[in-house]
TrEMBL record:
Keywords: NAD, Oxidoreductase
Keyword match GTP-binding: no
Protein's UniProt name: 3-phosphoglycerate dehydrogenase
D-isomer specific 2-hydroxyacid dehydrogenase NAD-binding domain boundaries: 112-293
The family this protein is said to belong to: Belongs to the D-isomer specific 2-hydroxyacid dehydrogenase family.
């Protein structure tokens, strides 16, 4: 049977599948050519990440398909319910990239509270001529230790992020309409471990009492953070979104940054991917990455291996 990894898959995943007799194709097929390619090559398994969309046209017109797999957590680029109604297996890897996304959140946080994203823009241009000016401009950093991190969505990735925050010495409060309490285990290098309990509170309480925010929610029909929510936040708060584009109102975000209501933002995802708004890209208070939350070698190995195991269990 043939597997098409249209958005790529790790070598470890390929090897695991090939050992069980699967043929793995890593050709990147254009969205409008997918149906023909799948049918011509009798593809049994279609693996995607974020780029490829699996909608009703593919589900209805590709009779050879048995499995649709998403290398990652959210599956908003797949018509999951419809595919399952049609008898297809739909799989994903909810735990494989949690740690990688959490570390990126803290890369944005650490960089933002010390202005690294803007300093790295200006030091190459003006570091030799305006060193003292830049030192003054970027000399008002703050520490994360002792501050409060508000986690909006305390699922797997939210918990992985909370784990780092606790290790850093931050207070963690969380809002999640589906979870009342979580236990966060911290494992240390010498084998010791500690477990922390976090009871979720109201969204309003998180908004009013957090110094920084991180979002870990699926795609929504409406904004999770818009102008009304920003208005409830502390002056100078910072917000990181490594979840999904469209959960933050970027117009309201930019306005709040320009007015000084918010201190900074860190965005890995955008409303208009893959063409983010110019006002977002050019704002010197926004730390930017191009949707790379799960893009570590370790995470991609885990994703590939986990997908391979699920495919093998279903089809063999």
């Amino acid at each position: 049977m043939k597997v098409l990894a249209n958005d790529g898959v790790s070598q470890s995943g390929i090897e695991a599948l090939e050992k069980k007799g699967f043929e793995v194709l890593t050709t990147t097929v254009a969205q409008d050519q997918l149906v023909n390619y799948i049918n011509e090559n009798e593809i049994s398994v279609l693996l995607v990440r974020s780029a490829t969309k699996v909608r009703t046209d593919i589900i209805d017109n590709c009779p050879s398909l048995k499995i649709i797999g998403r290398g990652g957590v959210g599956m908003d680029n797949i018509d999951v319910a419809y595919a399952r109604e049609k008898g297809l297996h739909v799989i994903n890897t909810p735990a494989a990239s949690s740690g990688s996304v959490a570390e990126l959140v803290f890369a944005h946080l650490y960089g933002s509270v010390r202005f690294l994203h803007d300093s790295n823009r200006n030091m190459p241009l003006e570091g030799d001529s305006k060193f003292k000016n830049l030192k003054k401009a970027y000399g008002g950093g703050i520490e994360l230790r002792g501050k409060t991190l508000g986690v909006i969505g305390i699922g797997r990735i939210g918990q992985a992020t909370a784990k780092i925050a606790i290790g850093v010495g931050m207070n963690v409060i969380a809002y999640d309409p589906f979870i009342e309490e979580v236990e966060i285990p911290l494992e240390f290098f010498d084998g010791q471990s500690l477990t922390f309990k976090i009871k979720t509170v109201s969204k309003e309480e998180v908004l009013k009492n957090s110094d920084f925010f991180t979002l870990h929610v699926p795609a929504q029909k409406e904004y999770v953070i818009g102008a009304p929510e920003i208005e409830q936040m502390k002056d100078g708060a910072g917000i990181i979104n490594a979840a999904r584009g469209g959960v933050i109102d970027e117009v309201a975000l930019v306005e709040a940054l320009e007015k000084g209501k918010l201190g900074f933002a860190g965005l890995d995802v955008f409303e208009n991917e893959p063409s983010p708004a110019i006002k977002v890209l050019m704002n010197n208070k926004i730390s930017l990455t191009p949707h790379i939350g799960a893009a570590t070698g370790e995470a991609q190995d885990r994703i590939g291996q986990e997908l391979a195991e699920q495919i093998i269990n279903i089809l063999n």
